[in-house]
Amino acid sequence: MAEAEVISLDEARVRPARGRAGSSRAGTPKKTASRRAVPVQRCHATTATGTVCRNRAKANGFCAVHQPPPPRDRIGPFDAARVNELLDLARRRVIGDYEVDQFGFDPELTERVFLPLVQPMHRRYWRVEWLGLENVPSEGAGLLVGNHAGTVPVDALVMKFGLLDQHPAHRHVRLLAADLAFRMPFVGPIARKMGNTLACDEDAMRLLESGELVGVFPEGYKGVGKGYKNRYKLQRFGRGGFVSIALRAQVPIIPVAIVGSEEIYPMIYDARLLARAGGLPYFPITPFFPLLGPLGLIPLPSKWIIEFGEPIPTDTYAPDAWQDTMLLFELTDRVRDSVQQMLYTNLTKRKSVFL
Amino acid sequence: MITGIGRHLGAKLAQRLEADPDVEAIIGVDLEEPEFDFDRTEFVRADIRNPLILKVMESAEVDTLVHLGVIATPTRVGGRSAMKEINVIGSLQLLAASQKIERLRKVVTKSTTAVYGASPRDPAVFTEDMSLRARPTTGYAKDAVEVEQYARDFGRRRTDVALTVLRFANFMGSEIETPLTRYFSFPVVPTALGYDPRIQLIHEDDAVDVLYRATREDHPGIFNVAADGVLLLSQALRICGKPALPVPLAFAAPLAGALRRFGVVDFPRDQLHFLVFGRVADTARLKDRFGFQPAFTTRQALEEFVSGQKFQRLVTPERAEAWQQDVYDFLRRKRDEAATGGRRR
């Protein structure tokens, strides 16, 4: 009995179907054959340790412990309870019954609506390979520092939703973005609802102090808006502001190398005049945009590899170390080198840009 | 002495102070007679811009001044310039007079979190001593910035006076009437297309509570006063059960102008920015120094406002629940019909 109780429910649920289908699994028929002499019907279920349960079976072929769950109430192909839960979600959204934090972060909307929308992109379209996920802490604050590329900052979003999807703790990354993002209609509020905020010391400190995982891309526009010929060449890592924040908050810095984002919108020319006219930091001309019009907006299906490097601890420094500008430069270079190294290593792992 | 007693906040504060036996006398100053009942508050019809105010303060031996006579909307006083006159010049004169009152020990002034402005270039959460990138340049917010400046100047000249500046978030509750409560009472609420600001409120009772504490206790400094929690405007409208009417930003200002002209609502221009980019202030200092915990969260303040209103609601929680049940039952019925129908055939 004690052994029987450790069986996972899933297994008990899977087994009956197979058993009824003619017990085609290799191990089961042999066992039942050797027991054929015994008139008592034995239970069909397999225990967690792989042996067959030997309890006396009831009419449906399973013992009291291994009773299959009652057939679930279904609506069409869906589970009725799940349908009701979705309706419940819809109802709560309609009457405003959900929480957002100070920054306007709406976790429910992010998990239930945005994530399913982004999932096929990183899972199927770009086939992201995740390396070093164990370097991202499961709880507590951390500062993710990555390379930025691809003309449109989708790499940040892929990293964000990838960690929510792939990390064992399903962590939310709070990205720091330029003010341009929050000034734009539609983009601004969505960016906030996903939990992102303005790249400034105050907001970063507030997030880190409340134990959040913060993502920052110190290259900024210089990284996203660099031409295709400069791909995977890290630009200047800002002025070391991110290191100063990490030192002040005493949180580890986790370098992140994103391979693949450079090829989604290969920018072959930066139309500076157009950019200036539109008040934008750059105006990309790719082989397909604006030539193919809206079709040119479809990103290319490059193969992505995202690696999280070994965390660089900052709590070993004195509390006022963030005022030491030389140390800031030194640490900035260390992070930058680490990202650049990972980029080179992972680039060689790809068979081609698309595979 | 309380200025601006003719208005909700001042009157409520006076009533609170009346219940306190340690408060010897309460003098309320305003241009209009208050519509509230007082037990022992003396009402003085006086203009704070008039030097006579000094005589009033001297004869009443005022030791605490609560300056609430700063107004947010120009309609009631007849235009923006009159409003500025009352707010800025009034405060200047009042503080000049106060400087001469030897007995004065405490000054509490009402300000607003609008002094932080609202812009996508500023941090998400404002603390009291943040240096800002986008200072407000119009309307009430600008007045408030100037009044605060005069208050600080006064504080420098009279270091023996405890000066408390309270920056309130937008007031909300079932009794108070502000441009924002009018806005939420519209049958269809215009919003800025493509924007969804974060809003933070303070319940009127909590506001009075903080004013009372600031008057009775010593808490010099600048404090943000706001409820816990943040709502998005879209979320707030859902709680109100109101349909939103998204208006492109280019038409927002003319629309607000038209609403003002037709006397529907007097929505100050600077508040439009608030309804586009939103604003949230940090209240850690208030909680720490006052030891104050607001009784209402932002959501509760709004809900209390909604329950006190009789306006038409398109969606109520009860109705939404009924809809959910209807849809669920419909789906199950369809399924059952399909199942039995299949068997019959």
Tell me the count of domains of chain A.
Answer: 3
- Low-confidence blocks of residues of chain A: 11-33
Number of helices of chain A: 12
Distance from N terminus to C terminus of chain B (CA atoms, Å) equals 87 Å
Strand order of the largest sheet of chain B: 3-2-1-4-5-7-12
CATH class term of the largest domain in chain A: Alpha Beta
Strand segment count of chain B: 15
Q: Biggest interface pair, residues each?
A: A-B, 39 and 41 residues
Bin the helical content of chain B.
Answer: 40-55%
Give a description of the structure:
- The complex is a heterodimer of chains A (355) and B (345).
- Chain A is of the alpha/beta class.
- Chain A is built from 12 helices and 11 strands.
- Chain A has a 7-stranded mixed beta sheet with strand order 3-11-8-4-7-5-6, sandwiched between helices. A two-stranded antiparallel ribbon of chain A has the order 1-2. A two-stranded antiparallel sheet of chain A has the order 9-10.
- The longest helix of chain A has 25 residues.
- By secondary structure, chain B is of the alpha/beta class.
- In chain B, the strands form 5 sheets. Chain B has a 7-stranded parallel beta sheet with strand order 3-2-1-4-5-7-12, sandwiched between helices. A two-stranded parallel ribbon of chain B has the order 6-15. A two-stranded parallel sheet of chain B has the order 8-11.
- Chains A and B meet through strand 1, helix 3, helix 6, helix 7 and strand 6 of A and strand 13, helix 7 and helix 12 of B.
Keywords:
heterodimer; A: 355 residues; alpha/beta; Glycerol-3-phosphate (1)-acyltransferase; 3 domains; two-stranded antiparallel sheet; 12 helices; globular; B: 345 residues; Rossmann fold; 7-stranded parallel beta sheet; two-stranded parallel ribbon
